[in-house]
Structures are given as C-alpha cells and as structure tokens.
Amino acid sequence: MILATMSGNKGAIWILTALLLLASKKTRKIGVIMSLALIISFAAGEGILKHIIQRPRPYDVFPGVQLLVAKSTAYSFPSGHTTTSFAAFYVLSRYLRTYSCLFGLLACIISFSRLYLFMHYPTDILAGIVLGLSLGKVAIWIYENKLKKLMHLNPDHE
Fold first, then answer.
1. Helix (H) or strand (E) holding 108
2. Most buried of the four, 26, 73, 86, 134, by CB within 10 Å?
3. What is the pLDDT of residues 54-111, one digit of tens each?
C-alpha cells in the first residue's frame, strides 16, 4: 500500500505515463489530453476544493493511530491521489481500451491505499472518483472542441 501511495504522490505514475505518450507521435494526442486532465484535476482538487472545504485528515481527528507514511500538509477532501488517478484512467480508458482494466485497477489500488494508510475518509475517495471521472471527460471535451482547432494551425501536432 505504501508503494501504491508513493506511485500516486504528485500524480507521479500518471505524469510519467503522459510523458511516455507525448514522446510518440502515434500517442501524442492521448498524452496531451491526459496532461490536460491532470492539470485540471490537480487545480480543482488541490488548488480550489481542499482550501474551500478544509476537511482535516483522519489522523488529525484520531491522533492515536500510528501512520505508515508521513503526514500530509494538505487538507483531506477530496483525495488528490484519487482525483488525478481517475482523471487519468478516464482518458486512458477512452483511447487505449485494451489496457482499460489495467489502468482502472491501478487507479483503484492507489485510491484504496489512501484509505488503508489512514490518509482519507471514504467520502474523500468517493468525491475524488466522481471529480476525476468528470474532469477526465471535461479534458477530452476541451481538447476536441478547443485545443484541437488550435493545434491544427500547426500541422506538426497530432
């Protein structure tokens, strides 16, 4: 569970995946959309919602629990690991259907690790899933309806 959480820290596994997709002309579109999804989900969850809601972490409410990972300085709601994982999963499952189960399993394991390690409440995870899936869909919409037109001005893209 510690390894699963670490792979989701700062969206590391998803950022690495996006970079790999961006490196190939064949998958660049997916990499652009995934990068957009990660940026939007991070901004919405970590940048806006956590500061508005300011929900304390479970270990702050139940201080007697011995943690297996370091405490976070961010608020609890929504889970950032879960939000970025499910935003990435949504995009990847849309375009790389063959690996959809693998990406979904990884997103679920990362999300569950946050509960297991006492970093989040179940509702933090649920909100992260809903937010991530929604923002993954928004990223695809933005690309298809806005960015795609801009990128076609430069034929070297996509």
1. helix 100-116
2. 86
3. 999 999 998 888 888 988 889 999 999 999 999 999 999 999 999 999 999 999 999 9
Residue 80, CA atoms < 13 Å, CB-side half-sphere = 28
2 by Cβ neighbours in 10 Å (0-12 / 13-18 / 19+) ranks as exposed
- ∠ CA 15-126-48, nearest 5°, is 60
Q: Which of 80, 73, 86, 91 is nearest to 5 (CA)?
A: 80
pTM of the model: 0.89
Q: What is the 3-state secondary structure (H, E, C) of 61-98?
A: HCCCCCCCCCCCCCCCCCCHHHHHHHHHHHHHHHHCHH
